[in-house]
């Protein structure tokens, strides 16, 4: 849907994912909103965030598109797993709602296509978090607005790569040239981001390498014990 003004606003840019995991010191809506504001000051064209409180807090502080998700659970379909979760994300202020696009059973019994159709009837822009090419095809067949490599390496269908899953990204871009394809997942350096965009990605989502200080610190600490 390249005539969608929200999708067009993130074209060619960096979307920063601002999320903190349960029990972590930064897990607070105001903190995530401040993180989002800092990312936008640095040049982010969009923000991805998790949870209704975070979506609302961030939407009230930034003027870039917000991609909202609601994680419920820790296995199977837990990224915006039902139509209710997706509707709540939209009501909280998400400009784009990202949902799990795998073929795994959804808690409410609806198919992915049924969920997308209901959201489109309500004017919601939908992004598909895909873990494989089959997921991407399912999303495209359902009329999804944006497809992404978010779940590559996390669903058991593809090996988890050290960096972005460039193979899947290129496959999706080649197969669906008329649909915005985002790259998300394990983009850890500016060089990797550059390579992703050179592949033809519509935009890229970076989270851990920018907004998760615990992980970033651990990367540095891990090098302390390495021999020169």
User: Can you count the helices?
Assistant: 10
Secondary-structure-based class equals alpha/beta
- Mean pLDDT over all positions: 96
The amount of helix comes to 25-40%
What is the number of E strands? 8
Order of SSEs = HEHEHEHEHEHEHEHEHH
EC number: 5.1.3.9
Keywords: Carbohydrate metabolism, Isomerase
Function: Converts N-acetylmannosamine-6-phosphate (ManNAc-6-P) to N-acetylglucosamine-6-phosphate (GlcNAc-6-P).
Protein name: Putative N-acetylmannosamine-6-phosphate 2-epimerase
Molecular structure report:
The chain has 228 residues and is an alpha/beta fold. The chain has a single domain, classed as Aldolase class I (TIM Barrel), CATH 3.20.20. The protein is built from 10 helices and 8 strands. It has helices at 5-9, 29-41, 52-59, 83-92, 112-121, 133-141, 166-175, 190-198, 208-211, 213-224, and strands spanning 14-18, 46-50, 66-69, 96-100, 125-129, 146-148, 181-184, 203-206. An 8-stranded parallel β-barrel has the order 1-2-3-4-5-6-7-8, surrounded by 7 helices. Helix 2 (29-41) links the parallel strand 1 and strand 2 (46-50). Helix 2 (29-41) packs across helix 3. The longest helix is centred in the first third of the chain and has 13 residues, at 29-41. The radius of gyration is 17 Å and the shape is globular. The termini are far apart. The mean pLDDT is 96.
